[in-house]
User: Fold these one by one.
Assistant:
Number 1:
Amino acid sequence: MKEELSAHSDQADTAGVSVANQISPMKIINGAYIKLFDWPTNSLFPETIIMDQGRFLELREELKRLTLIASILLVTYTNVGMAISGEKGFPSKLKREIKILLDGTNDDSAAMLNIGDYLCKEVNECLKESNYQMLDATKQETLKSQLQAVADRNHSVQKLLDSRAKSFMLKMLTARGKFNPSEHVPAGLKTVEKEILEMSTRFQKLVVHNRQVYGPFYSEIIAGMSS
C-alpha cells in the first residue's frame, strides 16, 4: 500500500493537489490486494494477510494457468481463423484437453510440445469435417512455434491477458449497485469465462472478509501517510 500511495502522492504533488483530497483509501486498499498476485514467491505476505497466504497463492497459480490456457486458445484461433470459430463445443473440448496436458507439470514449455501436436490434430479434424482446407505442414509448424513462444510468462499475449484479468478483478472489488461480472469479462478471456468468474468470486470473498476485519486499520495507516 505504501508504494501505491507514494505513486499517487507524486502525481498529486505534481498537480499541486493534496494527497488526502486526491486519493480514495479504498482505491489504494483494493489495489494493494491485486498486487498480491505479483508478491515475491519466497516472501511472507503482510501480517494482516498471512493467515490467508495459502489461499491467495492458490488463486495466483490458478490465474497463471487460466491466462496460459486463454493465451493458447487465442493463438490457435488467430492462426486458424473463422473456420473453427463457429464450431459449437469445440473451444470447450480444446480447453479441457489443454488443462489435462498442463496438469501435473511445472514445465509449460515441455507441455507445449504435446499441446501443439494435439491442437494441430484436432484443428485439422475439425477443418476436414467442415470442408475447410486443412493446415499444411508449414502452417502446423508455425502454430507450434507460436504456442511454444506463448508459454513464456513474459510473452506479450500472456502479459496482456494477465493485466486484463487483474483489471477485471479490481472492477469486481470496486463495483457498486447492480453489477453482473459475466457482462464484463475482458476480450481474450471469454474462452475461460466460467473459470475466471469462479476464481474472481473466491478472490472477492477473501478480500471482503479481510477488508471487514482490517479495513479501519488500513485506513488509519493511509490517513497517517497522507497527512
Note: The chain has nine helices and no strands.
Number 2:
Amino acid sequence: MKFTAAILALALGSASAFVQPSPARASTVVKGGFDGNQPMDYSKAGMQTVSDLESLAGELNPVVKFFDPLNLAEQEFWGDSNEATIAFLRYSEIKHGRIAMFAFVGYCAQANGIHWPWAMTKAGDAFPTDLSPPEQWDAIPEAAKWQIFMVIAFLEFWNESTGTHYMRGGKIGAFPALSGEDSPLPHPVPFNLYDPFGLSAKKSEEAKARGLKIEINNGRLAMLGIFGFLAESKVPGSVPVLVGKIPAYAGDYMAPFESNFHTMLYH
C-alpha cells in the first residue's frame, strides 16, 4: 500500500505549469555557440545567472542548497554565454526528470502486469506479462521500437526548433504547442503534450512557480529511483532496500535493439 501511494504521489505531484525567472540583467551578446559557427546577436534579458541558481537551490532543498562540485554553472558550453549554458543545464535537468518520472511509473506498472487493454500487434499478439520490464522491451517487435523512437525524435525536433529557444531566452521547461492557435503545425492535432486538458490555464503565477519546484524535486527523486531499479537488476544487492524485489536482467540497458538489431542489417 505504501508503495502504491508513493507511485501516485510521484505521478500526481509533477508540475504542469512553468514560469519565467525574474530578469537577471538586460544585455546583448554576440556568440557563435550552438547555433553554428556564425556569430549572432541575442538578448540575455531575463536569462538566469549563477546567483539565480543559488537562490533556487535553497528553495528546492534548504539542507543541501547549491551543489555544483564540477563547477558547471560557471562554464560557457560551445563558446556560448554563461547564461545560455545555465539555460541548457536547467532544461536538461527538467527534461531528464520528466523522462525519469515516466520511466519510474512505467517500470512499476509493467512489473505489476499493467498494460493497454488491446492487443500489442495487429496480428493479435498479447503484451508480455510474465517478463520483467526490461525483458518486456526486448520482447516487443522491432517495428514497435522504431515507432517509439520516431515519436521521441519528432518531439525532440519540435522542442528544439519551434519558438524561442531556451538558450536564447525562451521559457525554461515549456514545450511548444502542438494544438490550438499557437501551433504552427499545418494539420490539426487533438492535444498538446504539455497540459493536454488545459487544467493549469487558470493557475496563478504563484501556483505555477510552486508547481515547477515540485516537478524538479520529483524529477530528481525519480532519477534516483529508476537508476536504483536498473542497478539492482544488474548487480543484485547493490541497492539494499530493493534486495529480493527487483528481478535480475541479463540484457544490456545501453543496447535497446540488442535482441533484434541484426534484423535491420540483414533484411
Note: The beta strands are 28-31, 40-43.
